[in-house]
Design a protein that fits this description.
There is one protein chain. By secondary structure, the protein is mainly α. The protein has 2 domains: 30 residues, no CATH class; 129 residues, no CATH class. It has 7 helices and 5 strands. The strands form 2 sheets. The chain has a 3-stranded antiparallel β-sheet.
Length: 161
Amino acid sequence: MTNEKKSIKKCPRCNAKTYANMKKCENCNLIFERLKFASNQEAKKAILNRQREKVIYTSQFPPDLQRWKAGVICACFGFLGLHNIYVGRYIKGAFSFIFSLMTMILLLMLDPSLQSNLYSSWLLIPSALVFYFWFYDLFLIGINKYKVPVALKMPEQQFDK
């Protein structure tokens, strides 16, 4: 039974289970060899140009994106969502950035006597969300399960042989 578990992998695009020796996913027809030629820079361009059909999310970091850099950025500036901006997850990064700024501005505007009583304040909700996403992303980067957007640059015809 352990050999069966080792010989099965998940497709990075559709998460369908497939055999490890398969060359392409039977569910979505992703050719696994193409992931070697994946590009995060191309995915960022496609996301900004609203061409999301060209982008897949995978936990396999492409050659033009370093996992250790994403981890360091997340550890230092994760509360601002800068690690999400670095990898091209702009919506999640903007969410974290806006909620962080909102929390900081509200903390500055609050009366100092109320700042010590944050647990009863509604300010706890946005800051709790930011810290949850920050630590959860740091954990996922650490165990190599953090999904990054990639675009596949190679044409399919080269791998259909």
